[in-house]
C-alpha cells in the first residue's frame, strides 16, 4: 500500500516550527479549507482478508504513529485527519479483535445491516459465529452494489427526474 503521498500532505499541513515546536492535537487534515474534515481511505481487500490484514495494518503504522488516524479508544471514536475503512473481503473479526483500540473501520453491507446486525455473509476468514454487532465503533458506513439498489438502465423517464 502506498501512503507516502498522504503522509507528505499531512506533514505539510502539520509543520513543526521553532514558534510551534510541538505537534498539534488534534492534527490538521489534508483539506486547506476545512482542516478538521477527515479523508476516508477506503481499502478494498480483494484477496483473502485474514491473510492480507497484517500487511495492511503494518503499512498504516506511520499514519498511526503520527496521530493521523481516526480511532476507537475503547469508549468513543476519536476523529482524525484520516479515517481508514476496510471493504470487500476485509475481515470483520480482525477489525474488532482489539476492544480498547482500533483504527480501521468496516464497510458493512446494507443487506446485513437490514437484519439484526449480526449478518455472516461478510465474516471473511472466520468459521465461528459473529458475536459483535455492527455499530459506530467498528463500522464507518454501509454500502451496496448500485445494481442491487437502483432501477435498471433506461428505467428513469426524463420528465420524472428532477
UniProtKB/TrEMBL annotation:
<protein>
    <submittedName>
        <fullName>Altered inheritance of mitochondria protein 6</fullName>
    </submittedName>
</protein>
<feature type="region of interest" description="Disordered">
    <location>
        <begin position="116"/>
        <end position="162"/>
    </location>
</feature>
<feature type="compositionally biased region" description="Polar residues">
    <location>
        <begin position="123"/>
        <end position="149"/>
    </location>
</feature>
<dbReference type="InterPro" id="IPR051236">
    <property type="entry name" value="HAT_RTT109-like"/>
</dbReference>
Amino acid at each position: 500500500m502506498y501512503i507516502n503521498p498522504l503522509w507528505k500532505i499531512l506533514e505539510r499541513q502539520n509543520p513543526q516550527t521553532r514558534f510551534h515546536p510541538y505537534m498539534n492535537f488534534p492534527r490538521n487534515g489534508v483539506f486547506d479549507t476545512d482542516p478538521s474534515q477527515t479523508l476516508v481511505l477506503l481499502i478494498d481487500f480483494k484477496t483473502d482478508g485474514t491473510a492480507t490484514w497484517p500487511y495492511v495494518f503494518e503499512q498504516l503504522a506511520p499514519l498511526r504513529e503520527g496521530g493521523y488516524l481516526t480511532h476507537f479508544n475503547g469508549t468513543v471514536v476519536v476523529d482524525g485527519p484520516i479515517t481508514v475503512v476496510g471493504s470487500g473481503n476485509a475481515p470483520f473479526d480482525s477489525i474488532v479483535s482489539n476492544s480498547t483500540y482500533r483504527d480501521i473501520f468496516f464497510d458493512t453491507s446494507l443487506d446485513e445491516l437490514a437484519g439484526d446486525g449480526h449478518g455472516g455473509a461478510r465474516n471473511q476468514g472466520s468459521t465461528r459465529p459473529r458475536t459483535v454487532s455492527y455499530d459506530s465503533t467498528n463500522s464507518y458506513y454501509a454500502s451496496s452494489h448500485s445494481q442491487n439498489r437502483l432501477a435498471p438502465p433506461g428505467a428513469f423517464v426524463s420528465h420524472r427526474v428532477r
